[in-house]
Amino acid sequence: MTKIDMSEEILSAKKNLGLNWEEIAKKVGMSPVFLTSAALGMNSLKKDDAEKLCEILSLPSEVALALQAFPYKKWDQTIPTDPLVYRLYEVVGVYGETIKEIVHEKFGDGIMSAIDFSLDIDKEEDPKGDRVVITMNGKFLPYKSW
Amino acid sequence: MTKIDMSEEILSAKKNLGLNWEEIAKKVGMSPVFLTSAALGMNSLKKDDAEKLCEILSLPSEVALALQAFPYKKWDQTIPTDPLVYRLYEVVGVYGETIKEIVHEKFGDGIMSAIDFSLDIDKEEDPKGDRVVITMNGKFLPYKSW
Amino acid sequence: MTKIDMSEEILSAKKNLGLNWEEIAKKVGMSPVFLTSAALGMNSLKKDDAEKLCEILSLPSEVALALQAFPYKKWDQTIPTDPLVYRLYEVVGVYGETIKEIVHEKFGDGIMSAIDFSLDIDKEEDPKGDRVVITMNGKFLPYKSW
Amino acid sequence: MTKIDMSEEILSAKKNLGLNWEEIAKKVGMSPVFLTSAALGMNSLKKDDAEKLCEILSLPSEVALALQAFPYKKWDQTIPTDPLVYRLYEVVGVYGETIKEIVHEKFGDGIMSAIDFSLDIDKEEDPKGDRVVITMNGKFLPYKSW
Amino acid sequence: MTKIDMSEEILSAKKNLGLNWEEIAKKVGMSPVFLTSAALGMNSLKKDDAEKLCEILSLPSEVALALQAFPYKKWDQTIPTDPLVYRLYEVVGVYGETIKEIVHEKFGDGIMSAIDFSLDIDKEEDPKGDRVVITMNGKFLPYKSW
Amino acid sequence: MTKIDMSEEILSAKKNLGLNWEEIAKKVGMSPVFLTSAALGMNSLKKDDAEKLCEILSLPSEVALALQAFPYKKWDQTIPTDPLVYRLYEVVGVYGETIKEIVHEKFGDGIMSAIDFSLDIDKEEDPKGDRVVITMNGKFLPYKSW
Amino acid sequence: MTKIDMSEEILSAKKNLGLNWEEIAKKVGMSPVFLTSAALGMNSLKKDDAEKLCEILSLPSEVALALQAFPYKKWDQTIPTDPLVYRLYEVVGVYGETIKEIVHEKFGDGIMSAIDFSLDIDKEEDPKGDRVVITMNGKFLPYKSW
Amino acid sequence: MTKIDMSEEILSAKKNLGLNWEEIAKKVGMSPVFLTSAALGMNSLKKDDAEKLCEILSLPSEVALALQAFPYKKWDQTIPTDPLVYRLYEVVGVYGETIKEIVHEKFGDGIMSAIDFSLDIDKEEDPKGDRVVITMNGKFLPYKSW
Amino acid sequence: MTKIDMSEEILSAKKNLGLNWEEIAKKVGMSPVFLTSAALGMNSLKKDDAEKLCEILSLPSEVALALQAFPYKKWDQTIPTDPLVYRLYEVVGVYGETIKEIVHEKFGDGIMSAIDFSLDIDKEEDPKGDRVVITMNGKFLPYKSW
Amino acid sequence: MTKIDMSEEILSAKKNLGLNWEEIAKKVGMSPVFLTSAALGMNSLKKDDAEKLCEILSLPSEVALALQAFPYKKWDQTIPTDPLVYRLYEVVGVYGETIKEIVHEKFGDGIMSAIDFSLDIDKEEDPKGDRVVITMNGKFLPYKSW
C-alpha cells in the first residue's frame, strides 16, 4: 500500500466517523500536527501509534504498515500556489534574511534544525478577528569546523 | 538613497557602534524582528521610528527617508540556498498541507494573513542543545463569497 | 468525490439543461463569478448554496458535499498560455508597479486583499466594439509593525 | 536617455516638488494610472503630454523625448514576489478560468484586449476597512476565422 | 467529448478516407490552416462549418459539438523541441526586436493582433529547392491612452 | 567594438539624422528587415554593405567592422514579455502543430529553414484598421536518411 | 498505432529474435544509426524500408505505417540526466563556442544543418581502452541576406 | 588576470596580427579545436604551450599564466540560442537515445568520456554544398560494480 | 518487464522475506550500495549476479533479465526535496568549489570519475549521536589535450 | 569587506607566496577542506584561526574580520556545469535513493546532518590511475515526533 492510498483511506474513514484531527490526536496521544503530517504521508509513525490510529479509525493492518514506512518527502510545486501555503512561502521570502540575522545574533553561526523540530498551530481569539499562531521549535545546530 | 545603500549604512554603523539588534530595538521601542526587516529593506518604518533609529546610529536624514519608503519586496532565489533559510522553505514543503488541514479545521476556509502579521524569535535553553523558537502570528482571513 | 469529478458533473448537467451561469447564479442568489469559481473547484460554497445549486441541476448530494470542501487552489502553468488568461497576466506585468505606486499613494503601505475580495465581469456595449469590464474589489490591508 | 534614467529623473523631481500622481495627472489632463505607467517606462506619451509633464516637473527636453519613445515592455520575475503585485497574479491564477467561462458566455469566443484597454484604481471608503477597487476595461476581440 | 478525443476521431477518419487538409478545407469552404487548427483543438468552428466537416468525414454529431466548444489554448513546452516548430521560435528570437522596430516605424506604438489574425502557408517552387512561404496577417492595434 | 556598442552608435546616428530604416535600406540597396537585424546585432553584413551603411550615417570604420563580425545570436527571455513580440510567440504556440501538418502535407518530412530564409513586413491599408503583414520565406529542407 | 507503441513492438521483436541493430540495418540496407532513430520514433522511414524492417522482424503492417509517419520530435528533459547522454550535452556546453569559431573561420557566417545531416558511431580499438568515435556530417548553410 | 580578460587579449591580438586559429595552432603544435577552447577559457594549457602561444601573439606573461589556470567550465544558457550551437543541442535531443542504444550494443554498459576526449572539425567539399564534419573521440568507460 | 516493475517486485519480495540489503548483498557477494542501486533500477547487474539475486528472493527469470538491462538513468527533480537527499545536494553546493580547489591541488586539471566509481555507507558509533559515513572513490581522469 | 573581496585577497596572497592549501591548513591547524571553504566564503572561522590565517598570508585585519562573518551560502547554478562539480551532482541523482534506503536500514528514519558534518579529500595511488577519495561524515539526526 502506497502512502497515497494510505492517506485516502485515512481521510475517508475520518470523514465517515465525523472525527477531527484534534480528537484523533488526543486519543493516540500525539500532537495533532505531527499526526496529520503522518496521515498525509510526510512523516512515519512508530508501530504502536500507527496501530492505535488504525484501531480508532477501524482501518486494516496494511494502513498501519504504510504509516510506519519511512516517506520520500516530495512536493511538486517549487512555489506553492494555494494562498494559505503561499503566504508561508512569502514569509520565508520577506523574513528569511531577518531570521538569519537574529538567529546568528542569539546563537552564533548555525541553523535551526528542521528534523529535531516540532510545530504547533493555535487559535488566538481576538475581537478584531481571530489569529492563527504557528510556533516552530527546532534545535539549534552550530556549524562544525574540523 | 536606495534601500540597498540604506541597509549598508545601517549595518556598517551598527558594527562600528558594537550594538546588536536587540539593543537597538529596545531603544527604538519595537520588536527586533520588525526593526531588522526594515533595516534590511523589507519593511518601512513610520517617521518617528525611522528618525529614532538614525539618531541611535548617528545616521543622516537621508537614511531616515529611505527607511520610510514603501519597499518593493523582492527575493532572487525561488528556492533559497542558505541552509538556515532553506530549512524554513523545507518546513513549508513538508508541513504546508498539514498546516492547511489544521487551520481549516480550527478556523474554516481562509488563510493566515502575512500582512496583519508578526513574527518573533526566541531562544529556549536546553541542556541537550538550545532551541530556536519562531512564532508567527497572523490574522485569520476567511474567504469572502459574494 | 474529487473537485475535478464535481466540476465535470456540474458542467455536464449545466449543458444538458441549457442553462448559463447567470441564470444559475440568479436562482442560487449569488454572483455568477463566485458561483462559477466554486463550480470549477477554486472556491467552496456554504451548505445551503451548495444544496440549492445541486437542486437546480438535479445533482446528487455527493456533489453538494464536494462543493463545500475547502479547495487546494492549484494552477499548473506558471505563465498561462490561453490568450484570454495570458492577457490578464500581461496586465499584471505591464501595470503591476503602476498599481503599486497608486495604491501606496492613496492608502499607504499595504496591499489589496485577494481573500476579502470580489470580482465582477460586465459587458459594456459600444458601437466600435463591445467592451469587457472586470472590477476587482479587495479590502486594503495595511502592513502591521510590532 | 534610457527609460530607466527617465524614470529616475521623474520620480526624483516629483518627490522634490512634493506632488503626487493624481495632481500631476490632473494638470496634464490624463488618467493617473496611464501617466504613472508612462513615467515608469511601460507606456509612451504623445508629444504634447510629454512636454506638459516635463514643464510641470521642470525637467529638460530629453526627458520628454524619452517619454515619447515606444517602450520594450519587460518584466524580470515570471512570478512577482512583492505581496501587492503577487496578489494580482494570484487573482489571475484563481479566477482565470472563471473569467474565461463568463467572458465566453457573455461575448462568445474571443478575448479582452490588453492594448485597447484602460485601468482605473479607486478608493472605496468602508468603516470595516477601506477597499481598493481596480477596474479593467478592454475591447472584446472575437477570434477571426478565415 | 474532449478536444483531444475529437482530434483523434478527425485524424483517424481523414486517414481512412485518404483525404488531405486542402481537399477537406475546400469542401467546407475555409482556409486549410484555420480548419486544421480547429481540428487540432486550437480554434472553434461555427455550427455550420462544424457540421459540414463531420458530414464530409462521416463523424457523429458529438464531434461537431466538440468542434464548436471554445478551446483552452494550451501548449506544454515553453521552448518547442520539434525542429520545424523550433525554427519558428528561433525566428521570433532572432527577428523579434527587428519586427518591433519596423512595425513601430510603419504604424506607431502598438502591436499586430494574434486574434484578428490569419495565417497562410504556400509552396513556392524553386529549382534550387522549393520554399515554404508563411504569411501572417493581423490587425494593427494601437496602444490606447486614457 | 562590441555589437552592443555598434547598435547604440547606429541608433543614435539614425535618430540625429532623422532617417528611418526604409530610407536607409533603400540607399544601401537591401531589405529594411535584414538591414535592421544587422544593425541590432543579429546578423552580419558583407564588407560593401557595412561600409555603405556607415557612410550614410557618417559612422567610423570600427562600426563597419563590427557590422561584419559574425554574431552570437542570443536572447534573454525564454518567453518574451513585450506584447508585440509575445504575440509572435503565441502564434507559434497556437499554430505550431497546424503549420507542421500543412508543411508535411505539401512538402513531406522536413522543415522550413531559418537560415536560407527571408522575412518581410508590410502595411495593408484597411478602413476597419490597417493590417500588419509578415511574410516568412524559407527553403524547405527534407530530412536526409543514410 | 502511436510511435511509442511502435517502438515497443520493434524492441520486443528484436530482443526475441536475438538480433542487433547492425544486423538489422545491414539487411534493410541503411545505416544502423538512422534505422535505430526511426525505430525509436525520432525519424520516419520510406515505405520500402519500413516494410523491409517489418518483414525482418515479422511485424504487422501497422508498424510499417507508424514507421512512415512524420514524427513530432520531442524530448522531456531540458538537460538530460543519463550520464551517456549528459556527456554529449556537456560537450556542447564546453566546446559550443569553439565549434562556432572554427566553423566560421573555415566556412564563413552560417551553421551546420541538423536536417541535411548524418551521424555515425564507430569503435576504435585501443589497448589503453577502446574509444567511441562519433562523426557528425551536416551541410553548411550560409546565412542568406536579402 | 581572469579568463575573460585573457580571452579578450588573445582575440584582439589574433585580429591585429591577421592570424587564424589553424595557423596559430600549427605553430604551437596543437589541434586548432583544443587551442581555441583554451583561448576561450574552457581548457587549460601546459606551461610550454601557453608560453609559445603568447610568444606568437606577442602577449605578456600574465596571459600565459591565465592560460595555465584550471578553468571553472560554466555556460549560462541551459538551452543555447545561437543557431549554430542550438543545432548541436538538437542533435543530442534527437539522437541521444539512439547513440545510447548503439554504444551499448557495441561496448556494453558505460559511457563515452568527455574528459579523455578529443574533437575535430573538418570541411568536406561537395558540389551540392560543402559539409561540416565534426568528429568526437572519447574513451569508453565501462560502469564499475563493487 | 520495465525497471519500475522490476523494482516493485524486488522490494515486495524483500519485505515478505524479512531480509535487509546487507544480508542480500552478502549472499550475492556484492556491496550493498551497488546491489541496492541495481535493484532500484539505476545500475545493471551481470548475468550471474542477477540470477543469484532472483534465486535468493524467489523471483522469476524476467526480473533477472530486467536487472541486466542497461538503465536510462533519470531523475525527476532538478533539486531533490527529500531532506536526506537534499542535504547531499546542499553539500555539493556548499563544498563544490572547495572540492575543485583541493582535487586540482592534489591531482592537476581533471575530474573524479562518476563511472569508474564506488560508494560506501557506514555507521560510526558515537556517544553524542551515531554518524553516517559516506565514502566516494572515483578514478581521477586528467583532461586530455590534443 | 565582502566575502568576495576577501576571497580574492586570500587567493592572490596564496599564489604570490607559492603556498598550497595543505601547507596553509597545517600551519593554521585545521583540515584543508574546511579552511578552503572558509577562504572561498562558504564557512566562517573562529577569531584565532582567522587571525592565524591572515598572519601566514600577511593579510590585513579586515580580511580576518571578513573570515569571521557568518556567510550567506549562495550558489548560482541549480545544476552545476563544471564537469568536476557536475559529477558530484550526478552521484546524488544516481545514488540518492540508494543512500536513503541504506541509511534508513542502518539508522532508522532520519537524515545525515550537513551542519554537524565534515568532509575529507584524499589521494589513493593506483597503478591503473590514481583515485580521488571523498569522505563525508555527518551526525545522524533522527526525525523527532511530538
TrEMBL record, chains A, B, C, D, E, F, G, H, I, J:
<dbReference type="InterPro" id="IPR036581">
    <property type="entry name" value="Cyanate_lyase_C_sf"/>
</dbReference>
<comment type="similarity">
    <text>Belongs to the cyanase family.</text>
</comment>
<dbReference type="Pfam" id="PF02560">
    <property type="entry name" value="Cyanate_lyase"/>
</dbReference>
<feature type="domain" description="Cyanate lyase C-terminal">
    <location>
        <begin position="74"/>
        <end position="146"/>
    </location>
</feature>
<protein>
    <recommendedName>
        <fullName>Cyanate hydratase</fullName>
        <ecNumber>4.2.1.104</ecNumber>
    </recommendedName>
</protein>
<feature type="active site">
    <location>
        <position position="113"/>
    </location>
</feature>
<dbReference type="InterPro" id="IPR003712">
    <property type="entry name" value="Cyanate_lyase_C"/>
</dbReference>
<comment type="function">
    <text>Catalyzes the reaction of cyanate with bicarbonate to produce ammonia and carbon dioxide.</text>
</comment>
<dbReference type="InterPro" id="IPR010982">
    <property type="entry name" value="Lambda_DNA-bd_dom_sf"/>
</dbReference>
<feature type="active site">
    <location>
        <position position="87"/>
    </location>
</feature>
<dbReference type="InterPro" id="IPR008076">
    <property type="entry name" value="Cyanase"/>
</dbReference>
<feature type="active site">
    <location>
        <position position="90"/>
    </location>
</feature>
<dbReference type="GO" id="GO:0003677">
    <property type="term" value="F:DNA binding"/>
</dbReference>
<dbReference type="GO" id="GO:0008824">
    <property type="term" value="F:cyanate hydratase activity"/>
</dbReference>
<dbReference type="InterPro" id="IPR048564">
    <property type="entry name" value="CYNS_N"/>
</dbReference>
<dbReference type="Pfam" id="PF21291">
    <property type="entry name" value="CYNS_N"/>
</dbReference>
<keyword id="KW-0456">Lyase</keyword>
